[in-house]
Input
Amino acid sequence: MAKDCQYCGTSIFIPESGAIVFNPEHIKEVVKQFPLPLAHESEEAYVFHYHSQAELKASIEVLFKTSTPDYWAHILNTKTSQSLPISIQHLYERISKPELAAIIHDGNFNAHLQPIVDMKENRIFGYESLLRTENQIVAPGKLFEYAQRSGMQSMLDQKARRAAVKAKSDLLPPGQKIFINFLPSTIYVPEFCLQHTFQIVEEFNIDPSDVVFEVVETEKIKDVDHLKSILDTYKSSGMKVALDDVGAGYSTLEMLNLLQPDFLKIDRSYIQNCHTSPEKQAFLYKVMDRAKQIGIKVLAEGIETRDEWNWLHALGVNYGQGYFIGRPEAVPEKELILP
Output
C-alpha cells in the first residue's frame, strides 16, 4: 500500500543534490558497479551521494545496461532528511523529463468540454471533460503516457478531476452532466482513494448527480470485482458511472448486470460508417437490446456525419457525441445547433 499511495504524494521533485539509498538484498552485485561514490554500507542499505541531477541520471543509466530495473530505492534530501521511496524506472523518467513532471505536479492544464446531446430531444445533455495542457505545449496522449512511465498516473488523474469539476462549476448550469474519465488502476482502496474526489465535488458545490465518472481502458481491467467496488463507491455518493469501450469484453449481459453502469459508451470504431456496415449494425442492435433489458442509457461517441447521426437516431440511441455535434472547447457554446 505504501508504494502505491506514494504516487498520490505532494512531492515529485528530485533534490539537486543528495543521496540514493538501495536495499542490498535485491541488487548487491549491481550496486558494486554503481558509478557514484559509496558513502555508507551496511546490511540494511547502500548509500550513494550525488552532487547534481545530471550526475544521478548518468549513474541511473548504468542500471539499465543489462536489464530493465524493477526494484525500488529511496532518494534522500540530505539538507532536510526527507526521504522519497521511488522505483528506479520512475526515478529515471522524472529526472529525464522534469518539465513534464512539473506540468503534472503544478496542474498546468485545464478542461476542454465536448458536448453530449440528447438525441431524442436534440438538446445538450452534458459535456465530456478532456484534458489540455496550457498553450497546448504537450499533447494529452503524451502527458498520460509519461504519467504512466513515471508513476504519476494517480497525481495526474486527481488533478484532471479537479480541473473537470471546476469547469463544471464555472461553465455549466445545474442539471447538465459533466463526464470525467478515470483510471481504475489508480484507485487502490475506493473508500479511501475517492475521498479526495468527493471533497472536490463538495468544495465546488456541485450536485453529485450531475457528475458522471467514465471508466477508461476497460479492456485492460482483469479484476472485475475491484471495478465493481469502485463503481459502487461512486454511486453510493450519488454520482453516476459510465462504462467505455463497449465491445471490448464488457458488453455481455452478465457483465452489465454485475457492474450496473448508468451509461454505456459505444466506441467510435463501431460508430464510423455504421449506416453502411451490416456488421456494425448487428453489434449495435445487440448492445441496444441488452441495455434496454437492464435499463442502461446508451451513448454513441465519435459521430462525425449526418448519415451516422440519422441512423443512430432511428435506432433509438439515447445520447450522441462527436465532431458532427461539436468539438472540445475551453468555453462551450451556450446553445448548440446541429449542422
About this structure: Residues 54 and 95 are 8 Å apart (CA to CA). The domain at 101-321 is CATH 3.20.20.450 (TIM Barrel). DSSP finds 14 helices and 13 strands in the chain.
